[in-house]
């Protein structure tokens, strides 16, 4: 019963929307969602601004790269010391 009322109401709004929408519009007018307004038409509040946006990204990426490089260097040394992965010298003879 509830679904029938919802679908009946949604179907009637789509019919009205398609009659009001131009032929060039891909999305009917009432179904178009905007990021800056509510369904009632009221404006949404301004989003929070992060004060250290670029500095925060730089302060996150640089330590991540340094930590990743240190871990990979230590793992490569571990694999080479235990003879699990040793690059062969034959591959270097491309002359």
TrEMBL record:
The keyword Transit peptide applies. It is a single-pass membrane protein. It is found in: Mitochondrion inner membrane. The keyword Ubl conjugation does not apply. InterPro entries: MCU_reg (IPR018782). GO terms for cellular component: uniplex complex. One of its GO terms (biological process) is calcium import into the mitochondrion. Pfam families: DDDD (PF10161). The chain crosses the membrane at residues 49-71. Its main location: mitochondrion. Keywords: Calcium, Calcium transport, Ion transport, Membrane, Mitochondrion, Mitochondrion inner membrane, Transit peptide, Transmembrane, Transmembrane helix, Transport. Essential regulatory subunit of the mitochondrial calcium uniporter complex (uniplex), a complex that mediates calcium uptake into mitochondria. Component of the uniplex complex. Interacts (via the transmembrane region) with MCU (via the first transmembrane region); the interaction is direct. Belongs to the SMDT1/EMRE family. This is Essential MCU regulator, mitochondrial.
């Amino acid at each position: 019963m509830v679904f029938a009322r919802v679908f009946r109401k949604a179907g009637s709004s789509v019919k009205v929307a398609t009659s009001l929408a131009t032929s060039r519009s891909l999305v009917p007018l009432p179904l178009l969602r905007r990021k800056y307004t509510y369904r009632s038409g009221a404006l949404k509040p301004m989003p929070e601004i992060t004060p250290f946006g670029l500095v925060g990204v730089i302060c996150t990426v640089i330590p991540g790269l340094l930590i990743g490089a240190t871990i990979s260097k230590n793992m490569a040394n571990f694999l080479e010391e235990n003879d699990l992965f040793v690059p062969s010298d034959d591959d270097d003879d491309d002359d």
